[in-house]
């Protein structure tokens, strides 16, 4: 995601970058999940971590779609700002492997929170015959190499389970927003943005074909990622 490295837009695993804009935490907690909101196809849960920030989990049940379709939407970097709130731009910098993407994301966040940016590496793999996972992690940069505050400690997993009726998605995310933002503001933004992103993803998928001939990001080996 650094324009200092490259400056072209393409297909990449955004994954989290998007959802990262509001998912803030730095460690795993042992507390049980608490329900935030639910409806007939979506549940949003959270757990408070020892540092007071929230880890968020979204579970979506989508009909008539596939993992390929979701990956196609998530890797279409040119279109991401059209359907993901607060995203100014997403730039594919490199693909170290056919199943990995290095992405730079710029976020325009609501006042009084200052704008942020993220540098993330994504990795996509197949867990079983009908199950896949997309992992998104932050990439460290040298101090002063980014023009905005940087979101760090990003840890996002998208797990896709293909079923007879469509696709079950589990999205779990945490990150460190950095800067002087109270925990309660960060946590509320995290929950609202996660729901908004998954709502928008459902709409986006309804506008796309059910299946695509080729993967826009090939499944590969993400062991140790």
From TrEMBL:
PROSITE patterns assigned to the protein according to its UniProt record, in alphabetical order: START
Tell me the GO molecular function terms: lipid binding
Q: Which residues does UniProt assign to the signal peptide?
A: 1-29
- Which InterPro entries is this protein grouped with? START-like_dom_sf, START_lipid-bd_dom, START_lipid_transfer
Q: Superkingdom, according to UniProt? A: Bacteria
Report domain START positions. Answer: 30-210
Q: Which UniProt keywords apply?
A: Signal
Recorded GO cellular component terms are:
cytoplasm
Q: What is the protein name for this chain?
A: START domain-containing protein
């Amino acid at each position: 995601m650094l324009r200092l490295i490259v400056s072209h837009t393409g297909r990449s695993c955004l994954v989290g970058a998007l959802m990262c804009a509001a998912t803030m935490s730095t460690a795993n907690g042992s507390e049980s999940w608490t329900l935030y909101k639910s409806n007939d196809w979506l549940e949003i849960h959270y757990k408070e971590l020892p540092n007071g920030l929230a880890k968020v989990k979204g579970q979506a049940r989508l009909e008539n779609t596939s993992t390929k379709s979701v990956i196609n939407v998530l890797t279409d970097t040119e279109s991401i700002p059209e359907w993901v709130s607060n995203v100014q731009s997403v730039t594919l910098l490199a693909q170290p492997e056919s199943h990995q993407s290095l992405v730079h994301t710029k976020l325009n966040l609501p006042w009084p929170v200052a704008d942020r940016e993220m540098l993330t590496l994504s990795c996509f793999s197949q867990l079983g015959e009908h199950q896949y996972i997309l992992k998104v992690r932050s990439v460290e940069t040298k101090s002063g190499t980014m023009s905005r505050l940087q979101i760090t400690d990003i840890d996002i997993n998208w797990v896709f389970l293909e079923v007879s009726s469509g696709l079950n998605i589990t999205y779990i995310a945490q990150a460190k927003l950095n800067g002087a933002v109270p925990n309660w503001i960060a946590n509320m933004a995290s929950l609202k943005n996660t729901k908004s992103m998954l709502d928008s993803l459902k709409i986006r998928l309804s506008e796309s074909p059910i299946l695509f001939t080729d993967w826009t990001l090939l499944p590969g080996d993400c062991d140790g990622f």
